[in-house]
Write a structure and sequence with these properties.
The protein is α+β, with helices and mostly antiparallel strands and about 260 residues long. The chain has 2 domains: about 130 residues, Fervidobacterium nodosum Rt17-B1 like (Heat Shock Protein 90), CATH 3.30.565; about 80 residues, Actin, Chain A, domain 4 (Alpha-Beta Complex), CATH 3.90.640.20. Helix content is about 25%, strand content about 25%. The protein has a 5-stranded mixed beta sheet with strand order 1-2-3-4-5. Strands 6-7-8 form a 3-stranded antiparallel beta sheet. Helix 2 runs parallel beside helix 3. It is flat, with a radius of gyration of 24 Å. The N terminus is likely disordered.
Amino acid sequence: MRKLFLLLMVLPTLISCNRSEKTVNHQTQANFREVIDYEMKDVLIKDTSCEKSIMNCTHVQLEYPEFTGNNSNFANRLTHNLITYLLFNKDLQNKKVNNLVAVSKDYINDYYRFKRSFPKSSQVWAFILDSKPIYEHDSLFCFSYVFDNYRGGTHGIIEKYFLTFNRYTGKKFWPLDLIKNVDSFKKLAEKKFRELKKLKPDEDLDKAGFFKPFGKFRLPANIGINNKGIILHYNPYEIAPYSQGPTELIIGFQEAEIARK
């Protein structure tokens, strides 16, 4: 993993104590870089016309990290974009992504429009987001975002997403950047996948019901980090029917090191 602090250069020994102290202080200030931090926030918006308990009313319930610090704008914008993207079935058009209270109210307004079109419907909508930090390092944060969205139909949508941030720049960090040889890592991941699904090394993935239509193994769209290693998470429908549910693999850091060779 990259080291984001530069080592202070050794000061010449022929400088006086006072001068050395001033130089050290100056260099320390010059090399110090503020990291972003976070605090968890909550949003709860419900259908105001519903007098029942919140779980029996259309509502939006969000728990998410709000980042602070000089370089926090990008991390906050990316988080807000993701939540808005999930709230509206991955459609960001005409949404105020910088205000999660406003977009939550938009969700409720969509429900009101539905009720005007189908006044006899007893359907109740709900969007619940549970976010939490799963990895905290001097230079990196990784957060998981698990949401449950029901807008009618036989079942709702439950998915998990990861966002990993560089704590110094506030920008998104791609966990595979930790791996020097991604092709070798991918082979290791496929081996782990086959072991998890009890598939033989040469068994056809397509015929086994995965990675249709070509049956070719691929890494997931969602990759995160926790203290155990690198997380590979496949959401429902990503590699198999909804009935198969999600698939998650964790490849330990030591195993990932082997994959670099």
